[in-house]
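pipeline/complex-builder :: batch 7 item 3
reading input block
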Amino acid sequence: GENVEQHPSTLSVQEGDSAVIKCTYSDSASNYFPWYKQELGKRPQLIIDIRSNVGEKKDQRIAVTLNKTAKHFSLHITETQPEDSAVYFCAASIEGNMLTFGGGTRLMVKP
Amino acid sequence: DAGVIQSPRHEVTEMGQEVTLRCKPISGHNSLFWYRQTMMRGLELLIYFNNNVPIDDSGMPEDRFSAKMPNASFSTLKIQPSEPRDSAVYFCASSPGPSTAKNIQYFGAGTRLSVL
């Protein structure tokens, strides 16, 4: 089955700096890659997703890139703010099938 | 829509007791997922249903765990008998279904289970 590795497990940045979280996946058939943000004590919520027919997608301060050949994808957050502090999960799936999540990255943005 | 609704939000029980967690998916969604989240193991998929039919239950840890979806608007996850190592947050999620173009999973608020 699919295996998703996520790095780093924790990331601390200064407010205003950029943050990058990286994931690799094992199943070349995977074609849907969402990112979820989970604030402390809350539910995971989708923040951005990308499908295998595009290499990059951007939504304001967040962007995701996908390299299908290398089987890795990344989340980029620019101009980080304290409210970006949360655990971020990447996931991979064959569209319409179950999601396999990475282990999560705890992002701390220091004011 | 109120989103995915889970109950109870918190459950404290003693080892050996039966625990039933409940989930109401978003109306019109055809897929339902049960996850378990712990610090050690992260987010684990336990089982998922398409159109009320269990598709993959390979994540169910052992026979003490069972899940049902008797209709499109209700699902249960049962643990019998419960053990302290079952303590975790259990999330239910639903999505429109595999045949849709944008198959996003929406999570419920979770049930925090503590088994003493």
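note: DSSP finds no helices and eleven strands in chain B.
queue -> next item
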